[in-house]
Records
---
Amino acid sequence: MSRQDLRIAQLSFWFMHANEICRRAQAAPGVQLAAVWDSDQARGNRKAAQFGVPFEPELATLLDRDDIDAVSMCAEPARHPDLVEAAAAAGKHVLIEKPIAGDVAGARRIVEAARTHGVQIMPAYNLRHHPLAQRVKQLVDDGAVGEVVRVRKLHGHYLEYEAADYRADRITRAWGDPHDERRDSLFFAGTHVSLWFEWMFGMPESALCVRQTVVDGLPVEDNSTVMFRYPRYVGVSELSETLAAQQPVTEIYGTEGTILQLRGNLPSTRVFNPARTPLLIFNRRDDSWWVPDLPPHFLRHEDQYHSAGVFFEALRREEPVPTSPEAGLRSIAMLVAAERAAATGREVRMDEVVTEAEVMAA
């Protein structure tokens, strides 16, 4: 093994995406999965055996190794700030699963760790690297819809109600405290959408939110609707664990046209849709629809376009990672504002949650 390889350690398998990150580390050219750590030693030993690498029970010992360049982190969101601070202080770059923290204070600690120790910290944000999302952003930036007047973004999962993994008692046992660990739809699904809005349009001015639980017995709510107010339009975020075979993913309406995106999240891709394109663009000037040249179907949005590979390649090329911890902070602030709005029944301004400097930070 060449010392030129980028050596990665996996911190925690609490969240399932750790498995895919490890697989990608082992498959990526010039990348080596060197070790794993987990606060749950039984889980850590099991995963170390699965991936054929050593398990290190002591976090400080692993982080003290000078042959590890970066870590991937898939712990409970409430634990991320402590883990990030330790990794950054040891000079390790960090790929951190979303949501990057459970609150704004924790996200601020992560931003400060990156600045203090000069390491790169990248939220694992898959949708940014999906060709559909990238094409939608390009179309909007190029003025394909003119001035935006309304945006609707749907994201979530689909609970197989009869499966043991989604019984209320299993959720409570497997997730510990599902509220503290952000397993409700507003954070669990919502972090994808808040990162998307932040990337596409920047920070909104305020948020309104309604939350509800549809599936009896769940310890957390499974449906949320958030309205993000921008200066000249509203972005609607619909977050759900219950939309079977839901197909629309993104709707952007403007003065000159419309963009409709089909497929790109789990409910929209788990059941094949025979539509010939996942993207439709309407041009108001000639009242016509047109479709870009894109692959007709994606089985899963993570399968081919994964943030881990982007992170590895940026580090190998010594380039900046595309998604900053500041973006992660802003995405958390949007969700916290939505939580406050739901709890109080009022519109919550973003400047109640973050400072102007944090909104404007790169």
Note: The radius of gyration is 20 Å.
---
Amino acid sequence: MTIEDVTVSRHDGEQAAVLAEELCDVYADAYGVESGGEKAVAFRRRAEKQFMRPGFALVAARDGGQLVGFVFGYTLPAGDTHWWGGVQPEPSSEFLEETGARTWVLSEIEVRRAWQGKGVGRALHDAALGARAEERATLATGPDAAAQPVYESWGWRRVGRIPGDEGDYYSAYDLFVLELPVSR
């Protein structure tokens, strides 16, 4: 298993919906949970809502026929500042402004455990963000997520923390921003 064995493909929301079961399997494997368990079911509900959002895109990585990783996200709509709601420290009003073409949310990036540490996540990240026309990308992680140092090494910068919503995994999330286009 090497990164050279991986092929990358791009998909819109309709195509992503067809791949939902495979996406759930990768998600469950990445987290070491049951594919039909609570965490995987919650992922599927979140994912299916996002497939139809403006600017949705999925980049998938396969080794042979097996899906080994994916990244997906969507564009924040004009005027929608919910993503930034309650962020502390509070940024400027200019930072919070959404035009419908300014910010792409990197919602999920998942790689099967056997493929982690082999460059698949970075390849997916760069393929997804390298194709975006927005000015910047954003993502949210749990405050103590092991991935935070990885994101920082890829050029992301932490801009603040937001409170979680009822039913979220975390009571707060750290928000990161990356200026686009991605350069390596």
Note: The chain is about 30% helix and 30% strand.
---
Amino acid sequence: MAQTILVVDDSASLRQVVAMALQGAGYEVLQACDGQDALRYLDGRKINMVVCDVNMPKMNGIEFVRAAKALPNYKFLPILMLTTESQEAKKEEGKAAGAKAWMVKPFSPASLLNAVSKLCLP
């Protein structure tokens, strides 16, 4: 069975680019438009990893990471922040919330797949 990755970004075109790269590498992809939308997927189903933006309406990426990590089933879920934010303070905030890795946009699909292959839970 393919590993499932949840892609959370308020940009539909970016979600599509990430989803195409991941699906091309054999991953199953779920998509959400913000942190609040993403939480509906954390309903007990098996998710191997999350790729999440930081700046989004309703619930931003860091708030989402905190909310996801508070759920017992998703406490150890690896979350990769994929964002335009590159300030150290933001990265530290993400890390403190529980994000495993940080990748700055624009990104290459190859570098994304490389990071995903290292972080994705079996």
Note: The radius of gyration is 13 Å.
---
Amino acid sequence: MSITVLSMDEIINAICLHMAERKGVKVTDVQVELSWEEETGYTAEVWIQGRSQYLVESNMIEAILRYLHSEYNIRAYREDVRLELDEEITAVVNV
């Protein structure tokens, strides 16, 4: 078993790629801000063409799984990915 850690920038890239594909827009048209709060846990606010949308942790992990496969050729499952908060939000992947 090995561990892969995605930085906050990579998580943002993963969400941008995922949302651009889902909405049929260019990746550069997508802006993402990650956050963690006691009540809501991990969320991402996504802006596309002036509209804002919130993603919950499971949506973020879905984007991370697709990114792992497309960028690293790692086939991981939902239970393999854990979001962590230290100085920034990271994704720890056990595969």
Note: The mean pLDDT is 97.
